[in-house]
User: Fold this.
Amino acid sequence: MTTSSVTALLQRLAQEVDPWAPGFWRDFGIGMLKPLAATAAVALAVALSSTQRLGIEAEMLCAIVRSFLQLSVIGFVLQFIFTQKSPLWILLAYLFMVTIAGYTAGQRARRVPRGGYIAGVSILVGTGVTMFLLVVLSVFEFTPRYIIPVAGMMVSNTMTVTGVTMKKLHEDIKSQRNLVETALALGATPRQAAAGQVRRSLVIALSPVIDSAKTVGLIHSSQIVR
Assistant:
C-alpha cells in the first residue's frame, strides 16, 4: 500500500467523519440507540454466567465492547474501500482479517507453541484457496462489495474451527499423555500417536459448522434474502 493510498483513506475519513459538523453528534447518538438497547441481551447473558459461576463475564463484556467500537469505526473504512477500484484494497482488507483471526485463534490456545502463527497460516491457506477458486470460477465478482463480506464469513468460521481444534487437541494430548507416550515408545510416529486426538478435535470443532450448513435456507436465511 502506497503513501498516497493511505493519505486518500485519511482524507476520505476526514470528510465523512466531521465531529464539528451541525447535527453530527445528534445523528450519531440516534444511530447508537438500537445497538445500546441490544446490550440488554448481553447483560442477561453476563448475569447467567455469573449465576452459574462460569468465570467468563469479563471476557463477554470485553467482547461486546470491542465489537461495538469496531463496528462503529469499520463502517467508515468499508464505505471508503467499496468505492475503490484497485484490487490492492481487497487484498489489504483480506490480509487484515486473516491477521486478526490468526491472533484471536492463537489466544484461544495460548499454551500451544507458536499458536498464533499456526492459526494464521492455517486460516490464510484454507480461506485463500477457497476464495481463489470462487473468483476463478466466476462465482463472485472480484469487487470489494462481494469479496470482503464473503471472505469475512469464511475467515470467521475458519477462525472458530481453528481455535477450538487447537485448544481441544492440546487438552486431549495433555489428559491422555500416557497413551501418546506409550504409542511413541512402541515405535509410532508423532502423527500416528496423536491421530485419535486429532480426529476427535476436528469432529468437535467442525460439528457447529456442519450443523450451520445443514440449516442454510431454514435458519440462516438472511444471506439468501439479500
Notes: The mean pLDDT is 81. The CA atoms of residues 66 and 209 lie 24 Å apart. Residues 144-175 form the longest helix (32 residues).
